[in-house]
Amino acid sequence: MKHTMELLQEAALKNGPLCVGLDTDPSYLPESVLNNFASPAEAIFAYNKEIIRQVAADKSACCFKIQIAYYEALGMAGLEAYVKTVKAVREAGFIAISDIKRGDIADTAKAYARAHFGAGADFETDIITINPYMGFDTLKPFTEYCGPKTGGKGIFVLLRTSNPGMVDIEQQELKAGGRVLDRTGDELKRIGDEFAAVYEGQKCSPVGAVVGCTEESDARLLRDAYPDMFFLIPGYGAQGGAARIAATLLDKAGGTVNSSRGILCAWKKDAQIAEARDAGTLCLRDIVGAAGRACIAAKEDLLGAKKELGL
Question: What SS3 state is found at 75?
Answer without folding.
Answer: helix
